[in-house]
Amino acid sequence: xxxxxxxxxAAAAARExxxxxxxxxxEQAALxxxxxxxxxxxxxxxxxxxxxxGKQLPLYQVPAVAARxxxxxxVGAGTAKDVRNALAxxxxxxxxxxxxxxxxxxxxxxxxxxxxxxxxxxxxxxxxYTHTKSQAKPISLKKIVxxxxxxxxAIAEAFDIGVAQQEGVALAxxxxxxxxxxxxxxxxxNVAKNIAKAARMSCKVHGxxxxxxxxxGAFMAxxxxxxxPLRLIELHYNGAAKSDAPIVLxxxxxxxxxxxxxxxxxxxxxxxxxxxxxAASVLGVFQSLAKLQPAINVVGxxxxxxxxxxxxAVKPGxxxxxxxxxxxxxxxxxxxxxxxxxxxxxxxARFKPASMVDxxxxxxxxxxxxxxxxxxxxxxxxxxxxELQRAGDAALDPCWRMxxxxxxxxxxxxxxxxxxxxxGRAAGSVTAxxxxxxxxxxxxxxxxxxxxxxxxxxxxxxxxxxPVGLLLQFLMGKAVQTKPAKAAKTVKVATALNSATxxxxxxxxxxxxxx
Length: 515
Description:
This protein is α/β, with parallel strands linked by helices.
């Protein structure tokens, strides 16, 4: 989607030539005497419209308004959350046939958070999956102009970050939504290579031979039942001085999870294509970094493979040796995510990171604990946990900190190895995090269990792109504290959704600060 930010008065918004004018009206702002303001005030007085969040009033060919269609939308107090929730209900209007250009006018004094929330909500509302649909018809909408009362530096920066974030979220949603035969480990590696064409980026892909040489016995054990070769994908973004320690993001990339020999029930097994949601979010974050070019160093690691029940598949009771040298008794082959992540976490230490964050659709137990609203947050480091929680709140991509008491690790003890890979049903999300903690060492570390937030089931089935927003907000916050690197030569970034369609990078306030 092509977004543009403009400072617009109510009268100027009415003059904008477009197919649809969305006017967001807040309870906190007085309705004006302009054509649309007068109609809104009259409708409120007659009880036909309300300013509470999500209330709508469609209008057509309003006198003195250039747009054919007008939609009045109540946004309550006008907070970022209100704006996002209200716009979510306008998806059908935005996707309507014949709407090629829309103007979304924030008819109140919106802050930077509300502007960023509006961009993300509009992107979410207009996303449409078409990749494997032969008869799919793309939506008509090609451009959205976001009109604000005042185009301050803070609002312009929030808009730029919001546009970059929506590109990353869209990429994460797209690749998580694609069926497993259209999103293999090799295909994910190709997406990463494409993203790495941007300035300050590089990509290295390790195949089975390289992974074996590294000694990643746990990762290899998960992949050995599949005909699809595994890939360890290594992305680098170098936006700060070489001396600055990077932040490492690690994504679970199980492109399809049958459960292996511990086979899953048939019902809803198709949704196990989403088991690479962590990997998709790493790709999405790097797509956003390519656009924003912030002053920070970031490494992205994706351990990608399938978990299949082939004759060569790992069996319950098998003992494997991880890259760290620790041995693992595989009691349940469906607890495979932690096996690929443990080797990736140990590998991450070689980059001497300031901190590392892994994200994984790891446990059904986290879905039971937190549902689909908040991701589970586990961390050994209070400051890191606080930063991530605040970033999630700011990005409307919330998480909730869970415990990591030492006693939770008791169930991981094994008679035949250094540890088992499961510890029973009780506190399953916590014991999974305790397993990962054994491979972290002293590095500040956090684990995001996104099993409940990476996708939706039912009629609205589809990937959400979370936690791209949380992670990007966290990284941009860290970038403010980081010394910029020497400016790199500008190159065009080819979108990983379609390598034939290069996207022009937007200049951001962070980028301007480097100049």
